[in-house]
Amino acid sequence: MEGRCAVETWAQFGFSGGSYKVKILCGFGTDVLICTGTEEIYVFSKRERKITTVLLLPAAVNDLVGNQDKQLIYVACRSGVYRVNLQFLLHRDQSSQADASSSPAELKISQECLVVGADEVSSLLLVGSVLLTLCQRDASWLLTLYKTPKQTASTSHKEFGSFNLPVVSAVDCGAAESNRGPRKGSVLICIHSGDVEASSPSNASAESTVAQDHFHLEPLLFKLLFGVEAALAKSPVILCGLPDGRLCFLPLRLPGSCLRVLHSLEQPVCFVGASVVTETGHAQCLVAAGEQGRVALIKTDKAGPEGGSAVAAFTEGCVPGPVWCGCMDKSCFYYSTGADLLRLDLLEGSFARESKERGEETSGMTAAALQSPSSLNVCRVIALAEPACSTAGDVQLLGVSARGQLQRICLPAGRVDEGSSKLPSTQVSRSVRDLLSAIGDVCERASVLKTVIKSKNQFLRLLNHAVSVSFLLMADTTTDLPIKEKPIRCHFETSWSRLLQKDSLSLVCFLHNSSPFVLERGWMLSITVSPLSYSSSPAGESSSTNFSFPFHDLRPGQTFEASLPIAAAGDASFPMTVSCSLIFSLSSLLGEEEVAASFAGLQSSCISLPLSTLTVDWLHALQLNSPTATHKMATVQPSSAAADSIQTFLSSRQLRCSGRTNRGGESAAKPEPEKYSASVWVSSEIVRDTLKPKKSSNLDAKESIRDPEDLCLSLLERLLSEDTEGVKMGCQGDKIALSTSVAHARGPNGAAMKLSVKEINVGEEESTDKEATIEVQIESSSLAAVCGLHHAVLRRIQTLLQSATEKAASTKNVQILGLRRALQRAEIQQSQISGAFGEVVSTVQRDRLLLSVYQELRRNPLLIV
Amino acid sequence: MYQPPSLLEKWSQENNELVNKCKQQEAGGGAVSQDHRQSSLRWCSSEFHKLLRKIQGIPPHVDHSQLELAVVYNTCVCFTAQSQFSEAELLLKEATERVLQVTGNNADTSDPLVLWRAGLKSAGNTALHPHVLYLLCLQWALWLAKCQLENIGELQEQMSSLCEIVCDGVGDGSPSEAKGRLSKSPLLVMEPKRLTELLQICTSIAQGAEKLNEGRSSEALSDLQAASALPATRALVAYTHLLSGSCLAHMNRPQMALQCYKKALETDSRCVCALYRSMLIYRQLGNTQAEIQALRLLHSTLMLPPATEPVLGGIQPLSPSLLLSSQSLSRLLSVPSALSVLYSLALKCVLSGRVTEGVEHYLDLLAALHSEDQHAVDAEVSVLPRMPELYLEAGTALLFTRRPADCMAFCNEVISTTLELVPEKVVLEEPEEGIGGDARGLSVEGEDKVAMLLWAAAAYLVQGHCHAHLKDWKQAVTHYTRCINLLVKVHLKNRDFQPQIPAADVNVKHGKDLCTLQRMKGLSLAWRGISFTQMDQLREALRDLQLSLQAFPDYTGAGLWCGEVLWRLGRKHEAAACWEKTWSLTTQTSVEKLPLYLQDPQSGPLLDSVELRLRIQELGLT
Q1: Four-point Cα dihedral B216, B217, B223, B224, nearest 10
Q2: Which residues of A touch B387 (CB under 8 A)?
Q3: Choosing among A143, A257, A309, which should be mutated to test the B contact, i.e. which has the most B CBs within 10 A?
Q4: Touching check for B419 and chain A: CB below 8 Å?
Q5: Which of A599, A674, A682, B206 yields a CA-CA distance of 20 to 30 A from B284?
Q6: By the 8 A CB rule, do B373 and A201 touch?
Q7: Is there a contact between B230 and B197 (Cβ–Cβ < 8 Å)?
Q8: Which class for A708: exposed (0-12), middle (13-18), buried (19 or more C-beta within 10 A)?
Q9: How far does the CA of residue A233 sit from the closest CA of chain B (Å)?
């Protein structure tokens, strides 16, 4: 035994250490009652660590039982049984004791408390409302039952039954007398059947009386020992151990039962108890100990000798005696021999029995288990009580020593390891199985939790990304970076394609992710295409179209490409606004099915981050006619061309433009339609300046730029192919090789148009500083096409000039010349317009007049310098 | 001049004080508890005894004798009241010896009878004589309490003269005379006249009981009828009537006996024994309704709170119960416990067809058994059946009242309790060897394994009946099969032992077990057969019914159904033969003796005998 017992002396009382029966009664809160066989009962308070009260009884005390519920104790004296209301006494005591707290108060128990006038009661027991006394009368043992009153105030204790058992002279009575053993006494305990608790209606009252002398026995063993009838009647069984060695039992509530002998130890019984408590709280082993160390263990033997049914097995053995006193905890029997305190592990005994089932001859083993109690090295203990097991596994006992000291004995833990080494293999395998299954359960739960955490982490990470990305994009809008430097940017390309003999314009969107974040599940690109002006839409309804493209995993540096059809030839209104935004939707993040089930409202909730807004104008939508292509197109596509021409015709009729449209080279016989034209003048200086930096890397280009022809060409080229605001005209099959500075093209509505760039000299002849000017002229038979294209060209040149002014910072003054002319024209036009509105003419005439003014404006632009 | 009181005066004063104190306590006795009385009595006796020791400390003297004898009387009364007979007797003996010494006679004998005769003779006509007579009264009481009636008979003439003297002398003693004496003579705890009266009637009752026990009924009857005229408390008079009734019953005159019992009840309404005896007579007469009525009355009387039952002798220190302790009398006066009465009532009700009522009583009984107030009060042999049998009977009664679910719950309880303990194999031995073979069958604490098995099997059988009642034939077959499986675990050891029911030796334990076993086999097989019939499994049904008839040939139900199955199988002639044979069985097994749960269930499919006979007739015609 490693570790030593710690003995702590709590109190010392005047006690001669005679051969009296000493009893410790616990369970009254923090009070412990000790009777030592004299007239005195000591009340020790654990809280105050001292004896608070001494109860003085009229005669020597034999036994003591308590009713924790009502705070009553019954004291068996030589002269009778007294009832003491402890609570009342102690309360009165406390109030009177307040001044003199040093010495314990003495309380005399008067004759008034006498409830049963029977002499020499040797043992008491309280079962519910029944008080049992055991005493020896002449030639028989008399077990008497008294009914205790319901009200504590009344003192009537009615005797309502008694049971006799003739005395037999114990075999070794003389030997016990000569031995310096404790005074012979009797033991009374109460055994309950385990399954009664659940069913019995009197559960509450039974529970309250359960104390150190009440035990719950496993139902099977109970039935085996005390019969089915006691079990069916749910009767508690009184077990009494007599000084002649007999162990008798009496089913308390069974009609017609009598005291019967269960077993005989053949030496005075000094302890009876039940132990080996299972998880359900039922003891599996009944233990009786004789004064000279004979111990009987009574257990269920599942495999009985006959027929395989269970029988009660009685195992007897001898432990080193004499046994002065004993107590039990859940698995051990502690007893004192006066010279030493010993512990008997009853679990070992039960294991020995199990191994017997395996067919080994182990009766010796059981005996051996009985013969090897472990010594705890505490001497002179003559009473034990209240084993308490702490969480750490060490046991604490309350003991009274022969010198009259109340001691708290702390036993070292350590039996646990000892015990585990002795576990039989069946036990081990069972516990291993249990452990494994427990581990499995835990593991399963852990993995479930892990996935939950993982998904939550994922969710958080995605949200974090979303927030980061949105911050990034918001920062863009504030700092106003050029589009090329944005971390997430998109640009577009327009391209014409032919499908099913129908030309259609599609816009290809390239989203380049140069941010450090991956655009993954939950993100999508939303593109809204809407016409810039709504006037052309017939019903005034918003004709915008939405496209959205979910991303899967767009890693940093990757580009996402999406193609969206904008228009078939002829039915689109240009210019149109394309706004694209990144959308992060929470619903896709959570998983579709969950959201659909629980949050219907969440489906629409998303974060929308605008990326950019662009305009796709006529220049983007132009179909350039290469000299070869023109012819091909005309021949290949007669039907569609015819349809187009009809449509053009109709539209031109509506606009009150005369005649039909004429496609290049279609029919010379037809009268030449009225041609609309518009022109833009740009100072060639500026053009040269703005075009230069683009071609700065190219040395040859620098040379060629000087040539005005080249300049025109490159400007045209630039107008047609340069991407502005991220929109670029896609290459149309073959690379456009512009040989001349005149481009023929078809607009998206199918109208043929001519775009020509040439250098002209604008200015008065007398002016020395002739301004070299480049004229961009747009000609078409379709007014809409001219307008559209004019608008587009102006936009381009505007952007060109924006960049140019930054760099070239031209300091040319405003041309007075040009201004003057412009003023003159403005005056004329003013008068024309006012004339048009002033005269009473038809609306047709007025329209015509306004159109001519408009054309005038278009034809003679201001020079852009 | 002040003269210190003499010792005599001091002692007599002390005695008188004690007596007064005693009487005070007695007077207030109604309120204080029994225990309190006992303790005060104990105190009194010890005080008297102390005083007596002081008085007897000096040699006997005529002057002191009167006081001494009075104190002896008082002390003895107290001792007797505490049942300390030997101490009292010793005191009496010493006192007589001292009387003899005073009167100058020497007693060399230890025989109490001789001693008393000598004492009476020597004290004759002296002042001591009444006191010696008082002591003789006490001796009488002691003999009565110790049931030594022969001693009383020996001193019969002295006793009767004593009665006359005491009753007349003290009784008609004029108040003036008494007052004159009272000043001198010491006080007594109990009036000798009252004691004598009590002794007279108690002796009559005890002697009557003794004679009745010996079979001298008519002799006892005349004595008791004479005694009933004696002055006494109502309870004691009721006893005389009761015993007269018992004598008459013994003499086979039940109607007169009933009259006597009625008189006893009229005299003392708490005389439950009279009620019990009447019930027995009704049972003997076969008057079931009256018997049930009596049982119900008896039960309700027994259930009355015991507080209404006062101590028999009022507040006297010597109570009649102390004097009437003879065995034969207590046997005559014994009444079974309320629980056994309730059980008899329940069983009787069920057997006489008042099933609903019976069920209520059964449930009351079980509730009482499970209540916390129930305790194993007396060790007398109870007429209650064993607990599992009680459950089974209650269950069967419930089934009779068409409450199969409750019945099944009861059976489940029995099964769950017993099934664990049922062995794999049980050997049922021949009754002759049974004494030796008991040890095998009995487990450690004397619980019979066979009984355990039979209980479990019976529980399954009753559950089977429940399912049959519910027409759940499949479940019924399952439960009957479980019952059969348990029953076949019993092995009969002695092969030549007739497997038929030995009607004669029903009392022999194993014979009873065997009878139960065979009947249960017959029932379970037959009912499984009937269940199979209902499920149209005729082959199985026929097999089971035939096996049933083998195990228990007297069971008519099995015979009829066997015929029915044969009929359905097209073996009509065999069927007719089977029915005829069954009807020819006239052995009427006494249903009353069988436990309730082994009786034929009253529910389930029935065969109409008339219809069967018609079928036979048709068969004969064709």
Answers
A1: 140
A2: 228-229, 232-233, 254
A3: A309
A4: no
A5: B206
A6: no
A7: yes
A8: middle
A9: 6
Is B418 in Cβ contact with A116 (below 8 Å)?
no
* Contact yes or no for A275/A283 (Cβ under 8 A): yes
**A42, A43, A117, A132: which is closest to A77 by C-alpha?**
A117
Measured between beta carbons, the chain A residues lying within 8 angstroms of B410 are: none
Residue with tokens 């004097």: B323
Chain B residue numbers with beta carbons less than 8 Å from the beta carbon of A119 are none
pTM: 0.61
What pLDDT does A291 receive?
85
* Site from A232, A238, A300 to mutate, B interface, most B CB atoms within 10 angstroms: A232
Structure-model confidence comparison of residues A588 and A493, the more confident one: A493
Q: Which positions ≥6 away from A277 have C-beta within 8 Å?
A: A283, A284, A330, A331
Q: Using CA coordinates, name the residue in chain B closest to A229.
A: B387
Q: What residues of chain B, 80 to 139, have a C-beta less than 8 Å from chain A? A: none
Q: Which residues contact A467 (CB under 8 A, 6 or more apart)?
A: none
How many angstroms separate the CA of residue A34 from the nearest CA in chain B?
28
Residue in the block written with tokens 């355990």: B452
Strand (E) or helix (H) holding B578: helix B572-584
**Nearest Cα residue to A272 out of A364, A406, A264:** A264
User: How high does pLDDT run on average in chain A?
Assistant: 70
Residues with Cβ within 8 Å of A342's Cβ and at least 6 positions away in sequence, in order, are: A319, A320, A334, A335, A336, A373, A374, A375, A376
Nearest CA-CA partner of B297 in B245, B262, B334: B262
B307 in contact with chain A, both atoms CB, cutoff 8 A: no
Q: Give the closest-approach CA distance of B158 to chain A in angstroms.
A: 35
Question: CB atoms < 10 A from the CB of A502, how many?
Answer: 12
Pairing of strands A676-683, A863-864: parallel
Interface contact B179, partner A, CB < 8 A:
no
Residue B409 touches chain A, beta carbons under 8 Å: no
Number of cross-chain residue pairs from A and B with Cβ atoms under 8 Å apart: 133
- Measured in angstroms, the CA of B364 and the nearest CA of chain A are apart by 14
Dmax (CA) of chain B: 134
Q: Backbone phi, then psi, for B486, in 5-degree steps?
A: -70, -40
Which residue intervals of A210-290 are DSSP H helices? Answer: 219-226, 228-232
Element (H, E) at B368: helix B355-370
A67, A84, A64: which is closest to A76 by C-alpha? A64
**Which chain B residues are closer than 8 Å to A255 by Cβ?**
337, 339-340, 369, 374, 376-377, 382, 384
Write b or e for each residue in A393-410: b if 16 or more Cβ atoms lie within 10 A of its Cβ, otherwise e: ebbbbbbbbbebbbbbbb
Distance (Å) of CA A187 to CA A73, A120, A179, A269, B359: 17, 14, 20, 7, 42
pLDDT digits (tens, 9 = 90+) for A137-181: 777 888 888 888 776 666 667 777 788 888 876 444 444 444 444
Per-residue pLDDT tens over the stretch A62-84? 888 887 676 788 888 888 888 88
ipTM at complex level: 0.73
Q: What is the largest CA-CA distance in chain A?
A: 164
Contacts of A309 in chain B (CB under 8 A): 420-424, 449
AA identity, residue A623:
Q
Beta bridge partners of A163: A143
B382 reaches A (C-beta below 8 A) = yes
Other CB atoms within 10 Å distance of the CB of residue B135: 26
Q: Would you state the structure tokens that stand for residue B84, as one six-digit string?
A: 């300390």
Query: CA-to-CA distance for A817 and B470, rounded, in angstroms?
Result: 122
